[in-house]
Amino acid sequence: MREPPFAEPEETLGLARAAPEPFAGLSGRGVAIAVIDSGVHPGHGHITASQLGPGVMVLSDGAVVEGEGVWLDQLGHGTAVTAAIQEKAPDARCIPVRVFRDALKTSAAALIGAIRWSVALEVDVINLSLGSVNAAHRDAFAAVVDEAAAAGVVIVAAREANGAPCYPGSLQDVIGVDVDWDCLRTGYGVRWRGDCAIFQASGYPRPIPGVPPRRNLYGVSFAVAQVSGFASRACESLANTGSGGERVRQVRDLMCAQLPHRDARP
What we know:
This protein has helices spanning 77-88, 108-120, 138-150, 220-238, 244-258; strands at 32-37, 56-58, 64-65, 93-98, 125-128, 154-158, 160-161, 164-165, 175-179, 189-193, 196-201. The chain is α/β, with parallel strands linked by helices. The protein has a single domain (28-258), classed as Rossmann fold. The strands form two sheets. A nine-stranded mixed sheet has the order 3-2-4-1-5-6-9-11-10, sandwiched between helices. Strands 7-8 form a two-stranded antiparallel ribbon. A hairpin with a 2-residue loop joins β10 (189-193) and β11. The longest helix is centred in the last third of the chain and has 19 residues, at 220-238. The radius of gyration is 17 Å and the shape is globular. Residues 7-18 and 260-266 have low confidence and may be disordered.
């Protein structure tokens, strides 16, 4: 993966240049998003705490732990990801699903349990900025993705890691996302590989005043978060139209139809 262009002008970081936003005027109202990450810190300045739903923690064996405070972020990553989502979809309700505790590392069982819990909660979108490159886990992820699609839940996830397919992000019924360092944070791009739409977005989080971008978090996690925010706007636009796998396809097709930054389908 190409390194982010920290030395280039500020516009190329997606922080300054104005550009039309996809689904302008929509804000994710009425949409619920499960954010599977390290939790969230509701007191952070970039977080609208009133738009957070009660979350859970999922242990490495997939067991779900409920209770006050179990979803509080101790690492900062999930807070930054949630902030990026709320920037795009400020009226959506974000549900923190904490799978990272002491480090940005978890198990396939935890991710699958987190997805399954989120589907049972009947969220609209699942943001998953991580995944597994272990092909042995593919079938287990495919099964839970099928469950999500049948329920009409849109999963947005990292498509690959270090050039290797990432699960569940590389699966057919998932909106898979790659990072594009040249894409502005006000939009996203779509490129095609055969009939497969690959979404691309900026890997930069919301800027922190006084903190240089190279000292802030960055990476595909934030590309996924940007796309989840826009997927939430697409869900708002569709309202209650469609169900099951049809609903997932409608969201993807509507997002592809925007094509704000990349070539159209051949």
